[in-house]
Each structure stands twice: as structure tokens, then as C-alpha cells.
Amino acid sequence: MSEVKKTETAQDGMSIFEHLGELRKRIIYVLIIFLVGLIIGLFVANPIYQYLVNADQAKDYVLNAFSFWDGIGIYMKISMGVSLVLSIPAIVYQVWAFVSPGLREEERKASLKYVPFVFILFIAGILFAYFIIFPMALAFSRAVTTSMGLKETYGITQYFSFMFTLVIPMALLFELPVLIMFLTKIRVLNPLRLRKMRKVAYFVLVLIAVVITPPDFISDFLVTIPLVVLYEFSVYLSSLIYRKQLAADAEIEKRYS
């Protein structure tokens, strides 16, 4: 028995306490990586802040500080956002490292290839949310405020909280294709099941779009469409993986029949 097989056997025979110890180790790694990312974020917080407050989305607003901690709080939020972006690939890798002992060798190698795409899709989600959804939400909110005859006085904390509330969930939702591909690869999901639950999935996606966007039909529609496209793209990717799995299973069955 090779060293690899010995290692796999030892890992497969881990007790519940050993699994908990392994999980604790992975969580510690993630926390360390997040802390390093937070430190890096503090160094780049000011240029990012200057870009955000001078961008087209913010140029028409006079942003105010309503407490002594507002400036520090904004820097910390930006730093945490930077840390999250930098940590996403490491977090996914640690999740993969924790579940990989239960995977077959080909599943382990194939699923590891998804890690870079997690980062790419997360960045794509941030860009889509910031440059499309966020300006749309601001325009709608401002139109309602103006129609009510209210004087616009915005706090810097409220502005950035509103932005992060829209951007971060959308960035996470863009991870749907990778998640479904991974779950298909480890045989938890398949395209047949995904197609059967399509109506439920659409309802959930519409509900998410309604929650994270302003309360108007146009905003909901513009956010729902890319989410539905992401889901259908995920089903397509799942079907590609599933066909390969069926072909591999048929080959194994033919070999041993």
C-alpha cells in the first residue's frame, strides 16, 4: 500500500474527535488568513475610500459624520471587505481540505480546480452589484426622498452600509455555479434534481432579489434576470459533470461485469 493510500485510510478512519480537531485547525487557518487580509486592508483603505467617495455613484451626495467613530468605522468596513475578497480562495481551499479525505482521488483533483473560479466569480459579483445594482438603488431611493419633499442629509456610515448590504450578498450569490459544480462532483446534486426543483429555486431567487433591492418592479426584475441566468448556467455545468460521471460509471461496470 502506497503512502497516499495509507494516508487516505487513516483519514477515513478518523474519529469524531479527530474530525472536530481537524475542523478547528481549518477554522484557525481561516481566521489567520482573514486577520492578515484585514491588516492589508487597513493599508489600502484610504485609497479605496477616496475612490468610492469620488466615484460617479457618490459625487452628488454630501456625506456627513454623525459620530466621532464614523471615520474609523468606515475604514474598518473597507478593510474587512478587502480581507473578505483576499480570503475567499483560502476559505474555499480550507473547506475543500476538510472534506477532501471523503472524496475519491479523481473527485479530489477535479474539485480543487474550482478554487480560482470562486475568486473570479466573487469579483464579478462585486463589479456587477457596485456598477449596476447600487447606482440603481441610490437613484430610486433619492427619487422617493425628493417626491416626499425631504431634505437629503446622509451620513457616511449609512451610505457605506447601504452599499455593502447590496454588494456583498450579490458577490456571494455569484458563487452559485461553482457551488453546484462542486456538489455535483461529489454526487450530492445532479441536473435531474436541479431541474425538478427549478420552480422552488426561481422563487428563492426572486425573494432574494426583492430583499436586496429597492421596492420597485424594475430593480427586482433587473436583479432577478442575472440570478436566473446563473442558476440555468449552473444546471448546464452540472449536466456536463453528470454525463462524465455516468460515462465513468458505465465504463467501470463494463470492466467488472
TrEMBL record:
It is found in: Cell membrane; Membrane. Keywords: Cell membrane, Membrane, Protein transport, Translocation, Transmembrane, Transmembrane helix, Transport. The keyword Amino-acid biosynthesis does not apply. GO terms for molecular function: proton motive force dependent protein transmembrane transporter activity. One of its GO terms (biological process) is intracellular protein transmembrane transport. Its main location: membrane. The keyword Transmembrane applies. InterPro entries: Sec-indep_translocase_CS, TatC. One of its GO terms (cellular component) is TAT protein transport complex. Pfam families: TatC (PF00902). It is a multi-pass membrane protein. The chain crosses the membrane at residues 27-52, 72-93, 114-139, 159-180, 200-218, 224-242. Belongs to the TatC family. Forms a complex with TatA. HAMAP family: TatC. NCBIfam families: tatC. Part of the twin-arginine translocation (Tat) system that transports large folded proteins containing a characteristic twin-arginine motif in their signal peptide across membranes. This is Sec-independent protein translocase protein TatC. It comes from Paenibacillus crassostreae. The lineage of its organism: Bacteria, Bacillati, Bacillota, Bacilli, Bacillales. The gene is tatC.
